[in-house]
C-alpha cells in the first residue's frame, strides 16, 4: 500500500499535513540504533522508531505514522521514537502528531536547558544532562575533563520520544538492555523514562570516579617535595570542570524526587519505587561533588600556603647572603675612602689582617645562619 493510502486511513492521529511531515523523516528505510555519536544514516534526525506490545518489540518497517497507526489499532503497547538533534522542520510533524506542547518542543529543539521535569496535561517532559569523561594523558591547565550533552524525553500514555543533543549519550545500548527485560517494558513508557534516568545517573557516578582519580593525582603532586612548583592552573581547571558536572547533577535532584514521590498519570505506580533508587544514587553523586569541591578548595589553599612558605624560605636565604656580603662590603667601603690619615694604612700586615677579619666574620655568620636553618 502506498504512503498516501496509509495517510488517508489515519484519521485519529492529527491533521494530514502534520502526518506527511512526520512521514518525510524516513522514506521506506529501516530504523537502526546508533552506538556512535554521528547523526542518523537515515538522512534525517530519526535514529529509531520501535513499538512494544506487552514488553516485546514488534516489527516497525514503515515510517512513524504506520507504527502509530498499527499500535493504536491494537489498542495496547507504546511507541519509542528516538531522534538526534532534530531541526524545527523535522520536529514539527512529530509535535503535531503527538500533540506536544509548544514550549516543550522549543526546549527540545534549542537544547541548553537546565535539568527539569515538567507536566503538560497528560504528557511528561523531562530534561537530563548527560556527561562523559574526556580521556587525557596528563591533566593541564587547558585539559577538557567533562563533556556534556542533553537528552529530552516526552512521555505520554502510549509513546516515548527521546531527543538527544551532543556527541555522546547514545541510547542504543540502553534500548537493547531494556528489550532483554520484557516484564519491565510491559509497564509502559514510564519504564523507559526510569531506564534513561538511571542510565544518566550511573554515568554521573562513572565520571565522578574518573574525576576523583585526577583530583588524587593533583593532591599527590601538591604534597610532594616540589609541590610548590605545581601549576595552579591544573587545580582551577579541575574546579571549572567540576562546576560543569555540578550543573548537570545538582538541579536534577528535585525533579527525580518528584518522580519518586508525586503521583502522575504518565508514571506507573510500580515504576515510582524505582525512581527512589535513582534518587538515592543521585544524592550520592551530589554529595561526592560537594566533597570534591571542598577538597579542591583545601588543595588550592595548601598549594598557596606552600608557595608562601617557599617564598619565605627564598627570602630568608637572600637575607642571610645579603648579611654575609654586607661584612666585606662595609670593611672595603671604609678603607676605600681616600683619606691620607687612616689607621693601619702604613702597616705591612694590614692587608692580610683585614682579609682574615672579613673571612672570619663571614664564616661565623654563615655557620650561624646554617644552624638556624636560613641556609
Describe this structure in words.
This protein is of the alpha+beta class and 375 residues long. The protein is built from twelve helices and seven strands. The chain has a seven-stranded mixed β-sheet, with helices on both faces. The longest helix has 67 residues, at 269-335. It is rod-shaped and about 125 Å long. The termini are far apart. 34% of the residues are buried.
Question: In a nutshell, what does this entry contain?
Answer:
The protein has helices spanning 3-9, 16-23, 64-74, 88-97, 102-110, 172-179, 182-185, 189-222, 232-249, 253-261, 269-335, 350-371, and strands spanning 46-53, 56-58, 78-84, 116-120, 123-133, 146-155, 159-165.
Broad shape:
rod-shaped
Helix coverage percent: 55-70%
Beta fraction of the residues? 5-15%
How many distinct beta strands? 7
Order of helices and strands: HHEEHEHHEEEEHHHHHHH
Strand order of the largest sheet: 2-1-3-7-6-5-4
Query: Mean of residue pLDDT?
Result: 80
End-to-end C-alpha gap: 94 Å
Radius of gyration: 35 Å
How are the elements arranged and paired?
Layout: H1 3-9, H2 16-23, E1 46-53, E2 56-58, H3 64-74, E3 78-84, H4 88-97, H5 102-110, E4 116-120, E5 123-133, E6 146-155, E7 159-165, H6 172-179, H7 182-185, H8 189-222, H9 232-249, H10 253-261, H11 269-335, H12 350-371
Parallel strand pairs: 3-7
Antiparallel strand pairs: 1-2, 1-3, 4-5, 5-6, 6-7
Helix pairs in contact: 2-4, 8-9, 8-11, 9-11, 10-11, 11-12
Amino acid at each position: 500500500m502506498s504512503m498516501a493510502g496509509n495517510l488517508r486511513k489515519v484519521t485519529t492521529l492529527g491533521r494530514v499535513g502534520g502526518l506527511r511531515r512526520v512521514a518525510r523523516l524516513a522514506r521506506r528505510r529501516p530504523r537502526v540504533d546508533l552506538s556512535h555519536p554521528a547523526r542518523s544514516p537515515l538522512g534525517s534526525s530519526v535514529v529509531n522508531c520501535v513499538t512494544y506490545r506487552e514488553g516485546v518489540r514488534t516489527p516497525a518497517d514503515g515510517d512513524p505514522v504506520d507504527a502509530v497507526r498499527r499500535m493504536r489499532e491494537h489498542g495496547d503497547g507504546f511507541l519509542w521514537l528516538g531522534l538526534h538533534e532534530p531541526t524545527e522542520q523535522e520536529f514539527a510533524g512529530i509535535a503535531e502528531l503527538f500533540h506536544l506542547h509548544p514550549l516543550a518542543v522549543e526546549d527540545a529543539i534549542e537544547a541548553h536547558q537546565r535539568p527539569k521535569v515538567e507536566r503538560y496535561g497528560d504528557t511528561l517532559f523531562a530534561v537530563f544532562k548527560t556527561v562523559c569523561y574526556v580521556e587525557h594523558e596528563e591533566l593541564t591547565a587547558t585539559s577538557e575533563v567533562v563533556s556534556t550533552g542533553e537528552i529530552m524525553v516526552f512521555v505520554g500514555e502510549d509513546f516515548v520520544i527521546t531527543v538527544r543533543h551532543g556527541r555522546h549519550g547514545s541510547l542504543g545500548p540502553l534500548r537493547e538492555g531494556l528489550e532483554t527485560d520484557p516484564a519491565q517494558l510491559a509497564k509502559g513508557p514510564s519504564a523507559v523514562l526510569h531506564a534513561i534516568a538511571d542510565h544518566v545517573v550511573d554515568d554521573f557516578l562513572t565520571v565522578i570516579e574518573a574525576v576523583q582519580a585526577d583530583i588524587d593525582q593533583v593532591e599527590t603532586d601538591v604534597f610532594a617535595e616540589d609541590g610548590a612548583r605545581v601549576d595552579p592552573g591544573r587545580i582551577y581547571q579541575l574546579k571549572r570542570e567540576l562546576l560543569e558536572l555540578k550543573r548537570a547533577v545538582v538541579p536534577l535532584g528535585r525533579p527525580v524526587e518528584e518522580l519518586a514521590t508525586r503521583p502522575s498519570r504518565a508514571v506507573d505506580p510500580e515504576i515510582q519505587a524505582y525512581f527512589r533508587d535513582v534518587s538515592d544514587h543521585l544524592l550520592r553523586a551530589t554529595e561526592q561533588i560537594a566533597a570534591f569541591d571542598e577538597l579542591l578548595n583545601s588543595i588550592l589553599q595548601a598549594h598557596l600556603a606552600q608557595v608562601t612558605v617557599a617564598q619565605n624560605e627564598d627570602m630568608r636565604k637572600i637575607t642571610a647572603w645579603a648579611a654575609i656580603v654586607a661584612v666585606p662590603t662595609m670593611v672595603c667601603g671604609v678603607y676605600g675612602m681616600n683619606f691620607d690619615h687612616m689607621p693601619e694604612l702604613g702597616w705591612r700586615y694590614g692587608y692580610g689582617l683585614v682579609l682574615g677579619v672579613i673571612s672570619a666574620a663571614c664564616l661565623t655568620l654563615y655557620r650561624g645562619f646554617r644552624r638556624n636553618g636560613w641556609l
